[in-house]
Every structure is written in C-alpha cells, then in structure tokens.
Amino acid sequence: MLAFWNILENYFTVNKDTFNTDHKKVASALTYFKQDTQAGEWASDRMATAIAAQPTNYGTWQAFKDAFKVQFIPPQTELEALSKLHATPQENREFNEWYQEWSQHACRANVGQNTLMFTFRNTLNGAINNQIASQSPQPATLAELVECARDLDRYWRMYAKLLDSQGNLRISELSVKNSYTEINATQPSIYEPPVRRAKLTKEQRQYHIDNHLCFYCRQEGHSIFGCNHPDKKPPRQPMIRQVFPIEENDEEMDQDEGLSFPDSPL
User: Fold this and answer.
1) What is the model's pLDDT at position 167?
2) Domain residue ranges of the chain, discontinuous segments joined by +
3) What is the pLDDT of residue 261?
4) Nearest-angstrom CA–CA distance, 151 and 156
5) Which of 58-62, 74-78, 218-222 is least confident?
C-alpha cells in the first residue's frame, strides 16, 4: 500500500502543472484501482458518489487518503507502525536515511499532524532538536519542521568534517609549494596566504610587521631580504663596468698596431 501511495505522490509532483487541484488528483487516483477487486469496487463507489453530487465533488486529497487508510489498512498494522514510530530515534544517523525509515512508519500509523510533530521532535537528534527549540518563530507544520531539521543536520555534518580529533577547527591553507596542509585554528593565522604572491593589502602588511613575518614566505624570524626559501630567486647583482687606467706604453702599442688618433686641440 505504501508503494502505491509513493508512486501516486511522485506522479502528481512531477505533473504538478496538470494536477494542480485536489479534485484532479483524486479523480485521477481513482482510475488506478483494478476492477473486479475489493479496492476497485471501493473506488467505483467513490466515483459514483462524487459524480452524483451537484456540482461534482471528489473532496480533498487528504480526506481521500484518510478514507483509503480506514478501508484498507488493518488496525493492527497502525498500532505496530505507531510503536515503531516512537522506537526509531535518529541519534547519530544521517537525517535523510533516518527520515526515510521514520516516514514509512508515519504513513502506516494513520495519526494526525500534531501527533506526528510531537513524535518527530522526540525521536530527532537531541542537539538538532535543541537548535530548533531556540528558533523563532517555531515551525508550524510537519513539512517545515522536517526541512528545518534537514538543514541543521546538513550544516552540522559539513562543520564536523572540519574538526580534528581534539575538536579544534581545521583550516586548509595553500602552502608555498601549492600543496594543502592542515593547521590548527588556534594558531595565529588570521587569513589565507595570497596565491601566486599577490600584493599584500595594507592590513596584511601591518599584520606581517607586527608579527615579524617575512613578506615572501610568510614565516617569522627573518625579513624578505634574508629569506632562504627555495622558491625565492636570488637578488639581481648590479652591473659594474670595469675601467682600466691608461698606461704610458698604450700610445706605442696603438702605433705598432697601425692605429692613429688626432692630436688634441689643447
């Protein structure tokens, strides 16, 4: 029975532009019951009742589901589902995995929304339930409650991946050699080092000065001029032109080589 309802709900969700009223959804759902069966006879009677009304009235979708459960779901099944509903806590399970199981029991239990909301809160992870209890305004429907719990569970699991074994937040920083290293958030690092040696901002430069950090490798204990990091290129050596003094015998050498220079006018 649950599979049947899941198929119907999914079909109406996919085609929500066509089945945009309860009237259309109920009228369409009644055509899925097989003839010459108990369910088919029940569906035929409901169609006859709806058509006989002036104007035609199939009722609400929720009323149709409630009538179906009363007709086809045995009371013992409802009691078992209600018992499992209270005995299926989330604890540390991933929310979607847990809620899929919990919602199956909720469909079979055939109880009202207030009961479902109360049971949902009691079986939800305690930390998530406390977070929801601190919010204002509080979720007014089961759907809002489920969505709120799903978001909190997802955010917590994303945050938990950043914690180390001591419970400290880990930050992935890009090292000088372009490999990721994890550092403890309690270390005095207030920003991620610039990629590709980007120009430091005024605040970052002041931070380097105050903490005696190198402007190149971001480490302490030396300045950029004394940095020995392997990626740092050595400073360019200045070009010096060598000047040779003129010797007394240069003129004789020039004459021997066949060179002559004009006499100075002075």
Assistant:
1) 55
2) 2-72, 76-160, 170-226
3) 44
4) 9
5) 74-78
Q: Does the pTM of the predicted model rise above 0.85?
A: no
**Rounded to an integer, what distance in angstroms lies between the CA atom of residue 101 and that of residue 88?**
8
CA proximity to 24, closest of 40, 8, 35: 8
Is the bond leading into 55 cis (omega within 30 degrees of zero)? yes
Q: Tokens 């360019």 — which residue?
A: 236
Q: Which of 133, 142, 89 is nearest to 113 (CA)?
A: 142
Alpha-helical segments (H) within 15-72: 22-29, 38-52, 61-72
Angle between helices 2-14 and 95-109 (to 10 degrees): 110
Cβ atoms 125, 91 nearer than 8 A? yes
Mean pLDDT of the chain: 75
- Alpha helix segments (H runs only) across 73-201: 75-86, 95-109, 113-123, 126-133, 142-160
